[in-house]
Specification:
Helices cover about 35% and strands about 25% of the residues. The protein is α/β, with parallel strands linked by helices.
């Protein structure tokens, strides 16, 4: 190859990379904006709401508290999901694996639960709990802050329990969730009810049904149903268009 031809090729590659980078920066600026951070937020807004700070692995004991089922009625959540044998579930932001361990028996035989989290410390706690439970159908996966790192068209149901409001990159994470969902697959947002002032959770850690629907509407998702029988949370379920 002549030096001039090689140089032209390098220039084309650099210009393409530069253009792609500029496009990514522009897209980021269009989706997100900055403001002074509130006490429980990160100072970054998306579609009209400030993104909340993440509950770190140091708060893991709260996820496993004895009174959780009584307060949140996890049994009602499991009933609402209507899991079937053979179902592949992605528990996004699985934390200690509290829900993953309760979903796992319902997807057997033949099913799987991908327990996904961005914090390595949570993954370690999760693996310890899974080992104690003996539930071999649960597999942990360390994700990135902007990508759930799951194979394309591999998941029947993705569920986020009290997680979505904490995502620093909600658009990018949802795009990766959609990629992982099979055609016709479902995604369930489980969030503390912002509409109910009696729910004893800080405001930034709640979401209204309307806001959830607004943010889901930018993706090829059709609202399927909202389950409101849980005392603190609502379950808003969407189906990926085929």
């Amino acid at each position: 190859m002549k030096p001039t031809t090689l140089l032209r090729g390098i220039c084309v590659v650099l210009l393409s990379y530069h253009s792609a980078t500029l496009a990514q920066v522009a897209a980021y600026a269009e989706r997100y904006s900055q403001l002074p951070a509130s006490a429980d937020g990160i100072g970054k807004t998306y579609m009209g709401r400030e993104i909340s700070a993440v509950m770190g692995w140091q708060g893991a004991s709260w996820l496993e508290r004895e009174e959780r089922n009584r307060e949140e009625r996890t049994d009602l959540l499991l009933a609402a999901l209507a899991l079937q044998p053979g179902t592949v579930v992605a528990d996004i932001g699985a934390g200690t694996g509290y829900l993953a361990r309760r979903m796992a028996p319902a997807v057997m035989p033949g099913g799987k639960v991908w327990a996904v989290d961005v914090q390595p410390e949570m993954i370690s706690l999760m693996l310890a709990g899974v080992k104690r439970s003996g539930l071999t159908q649960i597999e942990a996966r360390l994700s990135a802050v902007d990508d759930v790192k799951l194979a394309a068209s591999s998941v029947d149901l993705a569920i986020m329990v009290d997680v979505y409001h904490e995502l620093a990159y909600p658009y990018e994470v949802m795009a990766s969730v959609l990629k992982a969902l099979k055609p016709g697959g479902r995604v369930a947002f489980v969030e503390y009810k912002a509409e109910d002032p009696r729910v004893p959770i800080k405001p930034l850690h709640k979401m209204s049904e309307a806001q959830i629907k607004r943010e889901a509407a930018v993706f090829p998702l059709d609202w399927e149903r909202t389950v409101s029988t849980l005392p603190w949370q609502h379950v808003v379920v969407f189906r990926k268009r085929e």
